[in-house]
Every structure is written in structure tokens, then in C-alpha cells.
Amino acid sequence: MNHPRPDLAPATLAVHAGRPGHRQGGPVNPPIPLNSTYVSQGEVPPGELAYARADTDAWHAFEDALAALEGAAERGIVFSSGMAAIAAVLALVPSGGILVLPCHAYQTTGAYAADLADRHGVTVRRVDIADTDAVVAALDGADLLLIESPTNPMLEVADLPALIAAARERGVRTAVDNTFATPLGQRPLALGADLVVHSVTKYLAGHSDLVLGAVLTSDAGLAERVRGHRTLHGAIAGPFETWLALRGLRTLPLRFERACANAAELARRLAEHPGVAEVRHPSLPGDPGHERASAQMDLPGAIVGVRTVTDPGTGPAATADAVVARCRLWVPATSLGGVESLIERRRRWGTESATVPEDLLRLSVGIEDVEDLWADLDRALRPDTLGV
Ligand SMILES: *Cc1c(COP(=O)(O)O)cnc(C)c1O
């Protein structure tokens, strides 16, 4: 396996990390090994493959490549979904323990935390992750702080260095869901976070064709616990999906840079649009997260939040729904991080937080030509062009 020097730039690591070593006649890409079991007898030394629920070489190239990008000292731990990865991280909170979670965390993460509260007596303290004082005040006696930044779907930006430092001082473990920012936007482990978690489904794989998750850490003990959780619960990744995710990861820097540039340009134009009441994107100088994002992120991310100017005849939800229905290029669908641009009114889900405005449209900006994306959005946002 190729382990390029960790000081190489992310664009180089994304292309080279996890490739087979250079051998005359050897393959350039790793194979897709299909094995449930490995030849094995007697005592199994650590690291030796024996049964594919516990470990398989089908995961290693992807796990090594993602670890290189996040700057993790330990091999990554791939899971069958982002939620499986989050469940493994939340399992670090003991029964009766305390978990600190953003109000606007990914909705299924919130639902999972509520389930832990019900079944395991975990106290869940929901905080405004952008309000550093409030988060720090909630850390007393906590077992885990799970940060999302920017948050889904409100795009609040946390003061990552301050929160991670405050948690460390108080002996509270920190995990960062880095799905939105990707390792190209921020690398929380370098700031002292204990764990990074990803929905690989989104930017890392990048083509809306698979569901996977991953956990990264530089702490050998934590890696062993998270890997042990995966073996016990069995939420393991298939060899083909993992191979596809690695193939997607190879172009992450190109895709993400283009998507971020498109998002920033669309956000700038949307802010002037007569059909738009509010735009959220960390690239906008007036955005609540702008200063922090400029200070701590290398790229502003490619999710844009848009609220529509309400049609008094129908109300906010119907106005926003009508915009989605008028789009021809933007795909009406949930999820994010693929090459294609998606648009969704988040509150169409009854489970989305009630503090998310009813007319908030979440735009996952893809890598298409920005003028084509703009033309479609511009038209969809003008109700007078209905049927044009
Ligand atoms: C999608 C998502 C998840 C869940 O990941 P799945 O792969 O869908 O299980 C977790 N966190 C964030 C921020 C997400 O966007």
C-alpha cells in the first residue's frame, strides 16, 4: 500500500494515498476483494485478516486515503452509512452520561440522540453551536461534545478551535461531523478533536450512488473502541461501495473546489434576487458565519440556504415548494454533495427541527456550469414566469 508523505498537499494525497505500491506489472488501482473469510488457524496476531466482518482488505485503501486527508494517525474506520458511524461515536457516551449536541444537527443524529436518552438515560443538551459561551457552559460533566459545523441545514459556523480547546480543558471528548466542510475545508483532528465522523455518502464519494460512513481518529485506544463497535454491531461496508467511494475521493479536491466556487457565486447573485428573502452561505460578508469561516475554513462549503419572499396567497411553505417545482435543471431530492445540484425544502420532512424556517430551501450546489445553474434558479424564483 502506498503511504505518501503526510506533508503533501490534499490534492496530491487524494490522488495517491491508498494506491498499491509501485511494482513492475502491478496494478495502479487496488482490487475489489470479495471474501467473507481468510485462511487462518491457531492464534490470530493483531492486524491479520480472519473474518470480513471484523476486518477486510476491501476497506484498507479507502480507509488509508481518508486518514491521510484528515491527518489521522490511525487507519480510518469505514461503516455502512454515516449514521452507523455516528452511532459508533455516540456509543462512547455511557448509559446515564451527558451528550452535548447542536440544536441544528443532522436530523437523524438528533433522533438517534433522543433514542439514547429514552433507552439509556443519556442526557442530551442541545446548544446553539455558534454561541460559544452557551456551548462551553453546557460542557460541565459532559462525556462527549458532537460538533457539526457548518450545521445542517442552517449553516451556523462553530468556533472550532475555541470549542475543542474548552472541551479538552474539561476532559470532554470532542467529535466533529465533517460532512459539510470535508477535509479540504477544515481538519478538526489538527485542532485537537478526538474524532471526526463523515457521511461518505455526500462529498467524499460525491456521485449520489452509494451510502457509506467513516470515523477518523489519531487515538489508538479510541480507534480500537470504534472498530470494536463496528465488529459487534456489524454495520459494515460492502467491497464495491468502498471501492466506488475511493474512486470518488480521487477527484474530491476538483469537485469540491468547483462546487464551492459555484455556491459562492450563486449566493452572491441570490442575495440580490427579488424573489429571495434571505440567503445563508459563509462566503457572504453579511452571513452570521462569515468571519469564523474566513478565519478557520480553507473553503466556504457548497451548501446554500435560501428563504423565499412569501406569496401571501399561498404562504411560505407553498411558495418555496413552487420554486422547487419550477426547477428544470436542479434536481428536487434530499441529500447533498454529489456532482449534480439538488434543491430541497427541508421542512417537507415532519422530523426536521421546528426552528428551521418553513420556507428554507437547501441547495446542494454541484459542479455544473454556474450560468446554467443560475438561469434555472433565477427563472424558478420568479413566479411570473410560471409556464415559461
Ligand atoms: C447525511 C448526513 C449524515 C448521515 O449520513 P448517512 O450516510 O445518510 O447515514 C450525517 N451527518 C450529516 C451532516 C449528513 O449530511
From TrEMBL:
<keyword id="KW-0663">Pyridoxal phosphate</keyword>
<keyword id="KW-0808">Transferase</keyword>
<dbReference type="Pfam" id="PF01053">
    <property type="entry name" value="Cys_Met_Meta_PP"/>
</dbReference>
<dbReference type="InterPro" id="IPR015421">
    <property type="entry name" value="PyrdxlP-dep_Trfase_major"/>
</dbReference>
<protein>
    <submittedName>
        <fullName>PLP-dependent transferase</fullName>
    </submittedName>
</protein>
<dbReference type="InterPro" id="IPR015424">
    <property type="entry name" value="PyrdxlP-dep_Trfase"/>
</dbReference>
<comment type="similarity">
    <text>Belongs to the trans-sulfuration enzymes family.</text>
</comment>
<dbReference type="InterPro" id="IPR000277">
    <property type="entry name" value="Cys/Met-Metab_PyrdxlP-dep_enz"/>
</dbReference>
<dbReference type="GO" id="GO:0016740">
    <property type="term" value="F:transferase activity"/>
</dbReference>
<dbReference type="InterPro" id="IPR015422">
    <property type="entry name" value="PyrdxlP-dep_Trfase_small"/>
</dbReference>
